[in-house]
Amino acid sequence: MKKRILLFVGLALAAAVATAGAATMVPPGNRYSVQPDIPGASSRRTQATNTTFQAKYRKVYALLQSDAELRAKIRKAAAAYGIDPMHIVGAIVGEHTYNVDAYDRLQTYYVKAMSYLSSKLTFAYDGEDVSDFVQRPEFRKCAATGDSYDLWECREQVWNHSFRGKTVDGTSFPDDRFGATFFQPYYAGQTFGLGQLNPLTALQMSDLVHKVSGLPELDVNDPNAVYKTIMDPDLTLPYVAATIRKSIDAYKSIAGFDISHNPGLTATLYNVGNPEQRAYALKEENEQRRAAGEPEKLPEENYYGWLVNDKLDELRALF
């Protein structure tokens, strides 16, 4: 009987640790038994290049498998931001399976990074530079925000509320994301580098990366340096890690879930973006569920994160 009581106490303590800080640990693995539907745009992009998702996965896997230096860089970046390397691996694998093919060699990314220094890039829409655009009075409230993440988050929210899909002062603005409208001078939707980051995400993470990794702060007035940072593996991996760290922290502090043991979930958030907004939405949904006497809903992976969790054992074996 005494042993049973001790066992019960031990289990209770373990449960308390698992939910410490009001955060419920999300277990590893997928919540869905089969992969959620893959968006048509991803399928069309893959078909247009005469390849398959499986072939693209195998290509990025081969890059990771063949390059010990890359694996070491991933470990280093993960350690600096206090995350499992599999979170970074998941982001890289997901992007190069469902977005663009990986290059065969890491060196190609360095060459591409240098090429952006000779280009004249701008972050603008319809002739208006974004640095001028954010001086409009609608953005005045953002001036008091803290770091680069909060600043650009605020500016993105102002864009969505006051400009997206609207005509303001005679200018018609597209019903599209802030990043796609102002921060992709080649064509909308384009992302770059090993982590397939977009420039707006890099600008958001600038202060955190500067603090943790000591890299120079990014300047919106220097698009060439932003693109070089995205393309250079030595520079971009800390940004990938910082983006994932932000997602983990947001879900723990806002929604009350610790997703640090589920790379498929962090990969999902890396894919869809806006982790804080999604964490608030999940928090609100679970408050309603609890009020109705229903069990809370765990965070769920999308098609992209599902693949990462499904392949996790194979990927972890590389490290």
Q: What is the beta-strand fraction?
A: under 5%
Main sheet: strand order: 1-6
Please name the CATH architecture.
Orthogonal Bundle
Beta strands, count: 6
Reading off the top of the CATH hierarchy, the class is best stated as Mainly Alpha
The rough form would be described as globular
The biggest beta sheet, please? 2 strands, parallel
Low-confidence residue ranges: 1-20
H-E order:
HEHHHHHEEHHEEHHHHEHHHH
- Rg, rounded, reads 21 Å
Mean pLDDT: 87
* Helix count from the secondary structure assignment: 16
- Number of separate structural domains: 1
First-to-last CA distance = 45 Å
**Overall helicity:** 55-70%
> Structural class, from secondary structure content?
mainly alpha
CATH topology: Lysozyme
Task: Walk me through the topology.
Elements: H1 2-18, E1 24-25, H2 40-48, H3 53-66, H4 68-80, H5 85-98, H6 107-115, E2 124-125, E3 128-129, H7 130-133, H8 148-163, E4 167-168, E5 171-172, H9 178-182, H10 199-213, H11 223-231, H12 233-255, E6 257-258, H13 263-272, H14 275-291, H15 303-310, H16 312-316
Parallel strand pairs: 1-6
Antiparallel strand pairs: 2-3, 4-5
